[in-house]
């Protein structure tokens, strides 16, 4: 206890202080002998005893001075150490004297501890703010699976006050089953504050030589619902824009024709006006039909039916389908992928169609395939102006070409991703043109070609 040193000094003298006192008396021993010698000298009695008294008093004063000189710095040292033990790092000792080096080291230790405590407090504050801002529910359990820490998201998930949750076991909280099984999994679960589909992750912890467990719960259902809502909003904006672009001239022309039909007598050229107006209405209705048909094709892509596809045969077939430009096919190694041949062919046709349109009327398009890091890469290289600087190239219905539908690249990427692959489109490095790359994973049985 902090009061033990004071109580010891108030009662029995500590051992070290006794030794310091005895050492001081030992140092004063010659003076005591001198005092006894004076007592036996042939001096006058009064003078003799006066000298003895002076020697004794001087010896005692010197002993007390020596005692204070040795013990009091130790009291200061003890007080500094006691302050450090109590967590008070603001006290400093005066350097100098026989204990100057020790005081210097203690002051340096106090400064370091004070700095480390400040850093710890700042880190704890930052950690607390971070946990409070997380949408993920975070639980920390000790070695007995009793709750020791949770953030506000976890509190909302359990729908209870914090002080009622601390110390409860994982079983009492209904979380014991989540701490078992794989370290990461998706499951449907019902919590007191929410139900739905959650991403569950747990890991072992160790603090102070004792074990524990960390549990993190993410509500993936809410995220997916927000993404779905955003996707619907984007789709409705595109559909609304396209439909309005077609209905506005149809409505305007219908009104014009109605006004014309109401005239009596009809003008001589009314047949031509009616014919032109009906042609315009039919053209816009046809364009709207093509747009909706393209949307339906993109939205109703069936699941792929994979089977073994030899890339050399598929690429050659796709190249022959393009009649506007001679396509250069660069021969590669025999490579077989597991894919839906019809869907993969459609994806390559869309990419090739874009490359040819970008290259015409002059230039060329090259098709090749190769193996890279366990993937099959099909590359289409053109000599056109290159892709526009936009992040929306693969967004459905986005197009920079007059009369374009904006689904070619989107459909190609959708087909590739359905095969666990992907599509990229970028400008060629250091040269004019674009490079489109469609990649698919190779089956494990396909061994790398020998060098």
From TrEMBL:
Transmembrane segments: 20-41
Protein EC: 2.7.13.3
InterPro entries membership: HATPase_C_sf (IPR036890), HATPase_dom (IPR003594), His_kinase_dom (IPR005467), PAS-like_dom_sf (IPR035965), Sig_transdc_His_kin-like_C (IPR004358)
A Pfam match: HATPase_c
MF annotations from Gene Ontology: kinase activity
Coiled-coil annotated spans: none
Keyword Hydrolase annotated: no
EC primary class: transferase
Keywords: Kinase, Membrane, Transferase, Transmembrane, Transmembrane helix
Domain of life: Bacteria
Catalytic activity from the UniProt record: ATP + protein L-histidine = ADP + protein N-phospho-L-histidine
All residue ranges annotated as the Histidine kinase domain in the record: 238-444
UniProt protein name: histidine kinase
């Amino acid at each position: 206890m902090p009061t033990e040193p004071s109580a010891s000094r108030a009662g029995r003298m500590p051992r070290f202080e006794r030794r310091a006192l005895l050492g001081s008396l030992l140092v004063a021993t010659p003076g005591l002998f001198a005092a006894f010698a004076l007592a036996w000298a042939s001096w006058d009695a009064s003078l003799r005893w006066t000298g003895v008294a002076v020697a004794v008093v001087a010896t005692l004063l010197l002993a007390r001075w020596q005692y204070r000189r040795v013990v009091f710095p130790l009291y200061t040292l003890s007080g500094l150490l006691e302050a450090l033990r109590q967590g008070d790092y603001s006290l400093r000792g005066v350097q100098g004297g026989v204990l100057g080096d020790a005081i210097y080291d203690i002051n340096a230790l106090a400064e370091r501890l004070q700095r480390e405590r400040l850093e710890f407090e700042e880190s704890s504050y930052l950690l607390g703010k971070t946990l409070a801002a997380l949408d993920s529910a975070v639980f920390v359990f000790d070695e007995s699976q009793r709750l020791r820490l949770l953030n506000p998201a976890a509190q909302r998930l359990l729908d209870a006050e914090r002080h009622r949750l601390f110390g409860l076991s994982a079983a009492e909280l209904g979380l014991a089953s989540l701490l078992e099984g794989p370290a990461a999994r998706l499951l449907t679960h019902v919590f007191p504050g929410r139900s739905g589909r959650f991403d569950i992750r747990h890991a072992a912890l160790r603090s102070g030589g004792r074990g524990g467990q960390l549990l993190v719960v993410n509500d993936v259902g809410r995220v997916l619902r927000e993404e779905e809502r955003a996707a619907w909003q984007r789709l409705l904006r595109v559909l609304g824009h396209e439909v309005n672009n077609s209905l506005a001239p149809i409505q305007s022309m219908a009104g014009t024709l109605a006004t014309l039909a109401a005239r009596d007598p009809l003008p001589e050229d009314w047949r031509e006006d009616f014919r032109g107006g009906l042609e315009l209405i039919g053209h816009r209705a046809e364009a709207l039909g093509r747009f909706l048909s393209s949307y339906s094709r993109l939205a109703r892509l069936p699941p792929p039916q994979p089977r073994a596809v030899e890339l050399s045969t598929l690429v050659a077939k796709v190249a022959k389908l393009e009649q506007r430009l001679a396509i250069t096919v660069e021969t590669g190694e025999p490579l077989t992928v597991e894919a839906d041949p019809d869907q993969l062919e459609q994806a390559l046709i869309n990419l090739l169609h874009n490359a040819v349109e970008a290259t015409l009327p002059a230039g060329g398009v090259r098709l090749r395939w190769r193996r890279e890091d366990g993937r099959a890469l099909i590359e289409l290289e053109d000599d056109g102006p290159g892709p526009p600087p936009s992040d929306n190239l693969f967004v459905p219905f986005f197009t920079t070409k007059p009369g374009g539908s904006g689904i070619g690249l989107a459909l190609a990427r959708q087909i590739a991703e359905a095969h666990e692959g992907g599509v990229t489109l970028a400008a060629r490095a250091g040269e004019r043109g674009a490079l489109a790359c469609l990649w698919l994973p190779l089956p494990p049985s396909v061994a790398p070609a020998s060098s």
